[in-house]
Amino acid sequence: MLVLSDINMPGMTGIEMLIKINTEIPPPPPIVTMITAYTDKENYHQAMDNGAHYVFNKPLDFHALKEKLIELQ
Fold this sequence. Notes:
The chain is α/β, with parallel strands linked by helices and 73 residues long. The chain has three helices and three strands, in the order βαβαβα. A three-stranded parallel sheet has the order 1-2-3, with helices on both faces. The radius of gyration is 12 Å and the shape is globular. The N and C termini lie close together (10 Å). 19% of the residues are buried. The model has no long low-confidence stretch (mean pLDDT 91).
């Protein structure tokens, strides 16, 4: 399973979603790639520490996204 998510979402942040995935989804966990306009180190580290496999910054480079998704398979 693959999940593409923004960090900033209504109702639940992407970081909160990662925590829910880690606590509520049985193994193996899905591959989670975060997409965000927030380029600060804190958001990056929170995402990676909570199970994100990669974090892309906006504006999104679709070629780089495609290459990373192929690599993560």
